Amino acid sequence: MKIGIIGCGATGLSAGYTLSQKGHETVLYDTSESELGGIAGAVPIGRTYIDKFYRHIFTSDAEILSLIQEAGLNSEMMWIEPKNGMYIDGKLYPFTNPIDLIMFPAVGFISRIRMGLAVLSAKYVTDYKAMEGITAKEWLVKKAGKQSYDKIWSTLLHSKFDKDSDKVSGVWIWNKFKLRGSTRQNLNKESLGYLRGGFFQLYKKLAEIIKGNGGRFVFESVARISPEADGKIGIETARGYEVYDKVLFTAAADLLVQLCNFPNEYLEKVSKIKHKSNICMTLVADRQISDFYWVTIAERDSPFVLYIEHTNLVKDEAYDGKHIIYLSRYIDSSDPFFSASDEEIKRVFLSYLPKLFPGFSPKDASSWHIFRSVHSQPVVGLRYSDDVLPQETPIANLHLASMAQIYPEDRGQNYAVAKGISAAKKMIGE
Ligand SMILES: Cc1cc2nc3c(=O)[nH]c(=O)nc-3n(C[C@H](O)[C@H](O)[C@H](O)COP(=O)(O)OP(=O)(O)OC[C@H]3O[C@@H](n4cnc5c(N)ncnc54)[C@H](O)[C@@H]3O)c2cc1C
What's the whole-model pTM score? Predict the structure, then answer.
């Protein structure tokens, strides 16, 4: 079969890899070569690459780990036990293990115990359907108590989902707790995984394998998808028009419906799916700023919700002694701050950073980048299973495999890989 894949992120490349390994003629499209890996892409630093957006995987991420192995990159996987923290009430506290939780002064002792139990018990819950009708707020208040909800979780939900935070389903937060609980071999230790040179190394390798299998890449924006009278699907770019037996679209559904005519009923379904966007600032510093890897900011006035000092997770000589820090903010793409100039975002982010680390000075940043991603986090609302779009679209032979269809799990490279592989198999009737 001749199959076109739109999108060279984790989903598209995993689908392309699967199809080309099975001998299908595979052509992948993305807007430019620098988009290889999609939002899991990377930029060069020192003698290597660094992810545009911070990134790690979990010990339970079986699908991506098996793809890494198949791609021959297993020896490049690193597993590290990081030091995490939480910034709350104007102070930074360690927040890595049960002792940190017991010592955490921001909420009372009973609340701390309830929070710990909520994380630990989440992995034993299997019937997510029972949680579909309750909000994350209701679930958190029930499991972890009102004090910790008011003090911590309401701020964190708000910082991820902004004005949609009260609509988020209990399934979403249960999943987050479940994931964190299941990455601990024992209570004290959480291991996070990183691929040396960034996960981009996996995507680069998949692209090489696809090419080796006879697959092709077209780095041009797809301008139009056209169903043909014989059931085939045409893809139009500035470089021309090519016809396929089947096409898989792997970006967000609201982008798909701009490329092709769909019935109103489908457009209505697509309009229900919302995403939060992300602004991520990468700072390159000449010195270590802290000894934390991941700091969650539970303060409403903070312009960013996460401080991630990547080089406290990954020590790589190829960074040439540079220290890499990410500052991340989730936001609506319609918010004027999302379109603010890079300079303005830098100014706002860096003016807050000394609150966390009083020794930090903007002069510590030797270089910086701002990356924006519009479709960063689907808003998983109540009874979300009713909103999840099927892989088949109303147009025969045009399929969709995108981030917002991952459910009850949340977005993540592991699930993108799994979705790409399963979508490809479904298209060829396996
Ligand atoms: C801030 C942030 C942090 C994250 N952290 C982690 C993490 O730590 N660990 C983890 O596992 N996951 C993480 N994720 C999630 C993970 O990155 C995603 O789940 C995964 O990369 C999604 O891949 P995808 O292929 O589905 O989508 P994308 O990567 O978005 O790929 C879609 C591709 O389609 C292309 N495209 C769109 N329209 C067109 C068109 N008209 N023509 C041609 N091409 C087009 C786009 O350019 C893009 O490359 C994070 C995500 C974000 C936003």
Answer: 0.96
